Amino acid sequence: MSRSLIDIRDLSTTEIEELIRTAEDIIANPKKYSEVCHGKKLATLFFEPSTRTRLSFEAAMYELGGNVLSMSNAASSSAAKGESVADTAKTVSCYADIIAMRHPKEGAPLVAAMNASIPVINAGDGGHNHPTQTLADLCTISREKGRLDNLTVGFCGDLKFGRTVHSLIEALSRYTGIKFVLISPVELKLPSYVKKDVIQAHGLEYVQTTDLESVMPELDILYMTRVQRERFFNEEDYLRLKDSYILTPEKLKGAKSDLCIMHPLPRVNEISVAIDEDPRACYFKQVLNGKYMRMALIMKLLGIEV
Fold first, then answer.
1. Nearest by Cα to 32 from 68, 66, 63
2. What is the DSSP track for 204-257?
3. For residue 79, how many other CB atoms are within 10 A of its CB?
4. CB atoms < 10 A from the CB of 4, how many?
5. Phi, psi for 86 (deg, rounded to 5)
6. What's the predicted TM-score (pTM) here?
7. Where is 107: in which H helix or E strand?
C-alpha cells in the first residue's frame, strides 16, 4: 500500500524538518521544481466547502508541472448516489497518482487510504485532523521564529472543534520547551482527551484561561481561530459565542515586538483588519507557506527527489 498522510503523527519530526527544508528550497529555486511532477495527476476530492486548501493543493500540483482532477462538490459526485468512500478511493486510484481528500466525517480519509492503491492526503476530516494545515503552521513558525522548540504558544477561540488546533498541539508536543496557553470560552475549551493524551502525556506545561489580554505579554505565537458555525448544533450557542475574542490593535499593546500572529483562515471578524498591516501578522504568509509545504509533501509521497 502507498504511504499516505492522515495524521500529523504519520510524519516524524525529522521528516517534518526535511519537508520544511524542501519548501524553503522551492521558495529559493522555483524553476528547479517546475517540471518534477510532469505526467502526474492529483485528484482533489472535497466533500466539504474549501477555498484555501483545495486551491493550495491544485496550485501546488500545477507549480510542480503536474495536472489536477477536481471534485469540489459532493452533490455532483457519485457520493450523492450513495457510493462509499472505499469505492470512491478505489475508482479514483484508476485515474490519478495521488489524492487529497476533505470530508465532514472523521476517519473518512483513513478509510480512503486503506482502500486506495495510491497515496491519500487528509485535507481535513470533520473536527478531527488537518495535517497539511499543520505543516503550513510549522513552516511559518520555523521561518518566523527560527525554531520549533522553546516557545510559548497561545491558542485562542474555538479549541473544542478546531481541528487545526488539535493537529498543531499534537505536532508541537514533540518538541522541547513548549508551553501552551489555552484561551477560550468555557464551552469551547480544549477537549480533555487532547490535554490528557497529548499535552500531559508529553509532560508539557499548559495554562487555561478565558482572558486573552492577561496572557498576551508571555506569548511567542498567538494562534487565533474562528468560532465555526458549521460545528454547532444550536444556532443560539453559536451567536452567543461567535464574538468571544476579537483581536484589535489595543489588545496587542502588551504583546512582544516579535509576536507571530497566526490564523488558519477563513477569518470572520476575530482579527481586526487593522492588524493586517502589523509586521507581526503572519496569517497570509501561512497561506503561501501552505502551498510550498504541499508541494514538498506531494513530492515526498510520490517518491520524487530533486
1. 63
2. -EEEEES-HHHHGGG-SEEEE----GGG-S-HHHHHHHTTS--B-GGGGTTS-T
3. 18
4. 22
5. -60, -45
6. 0.91
7. none
Torsion angle, alpha carbons of 80, 81, 87, 88, to 10: -30
* Residue for grid cell 488546533: 165
What is the DSSP pairing of strand 178-183 with strand 260-262? unpaired
Distance CA 246, CA 176 (A): 30
Distance CA 11, CA 5 (A): 8
CA distance 42 to 64: 11
Side chain identity at 46, as an amino acid letter? F
288 burial type by CB count under 10 A (0-12 exposed, 13-18 middle, 19+ buried): middle
Q: What is the pLDDT of residues 167-222, one digit of tens each?
A: 999 999 999 999 999 998 888 899 999 999 999 999 999 999 989 999 999 999 99
Q: How far is CA 99 from the centre of its chain?
A: 17
What would the grid cell of residue 186 be?
Answer: 468555557
